[in-house]
From TrEMBL:
InterPro entries: DNA-bd_dom_put_sf, HTH_17, SinI_DNA-bd, Tn1545/Tn916_Xis. One of its GO terms (molecular function) is DNA binding. It holds the Pfam family HTH_17. Residues 1-49 form the Helix-turn-helix domain. Coiled coil: none annotated. This is Helix-turn-helix domain-containing protein.
Length: 64
């Protein structure tokens, strides 16, 4: 799914989603210039970071 779709499904804002990707906390697939997030990866990310402040880079757990 695209960043916008992932943001809508998860309830995380688009800008926050972009920050998580740039910090290397949420892996993406690059297809040309488009960034794609796998739904299973997003599920694992949400489970690993439940109850954490996603705006604090040091609190967010990285997902592989």
């Amino acid at each position: 799914m695209t960043i916008d779709e992932a943001a809508e499904v998860s309830g995380i804002g688009r800008n926050t989603m972009r920050k998580l990707i740039s910090w290397g906390k949420l892996p993406v697939l690059l297809v040309g210039r488009k960034k794609i997030i796998r739904s299973d990866t997003l599920d694992r990310f949400m489970t690993a970071n439940q109850g954490r402040n996603l705006l604090n880079q040091s609190e967010v757990r990285k997902v592989e």
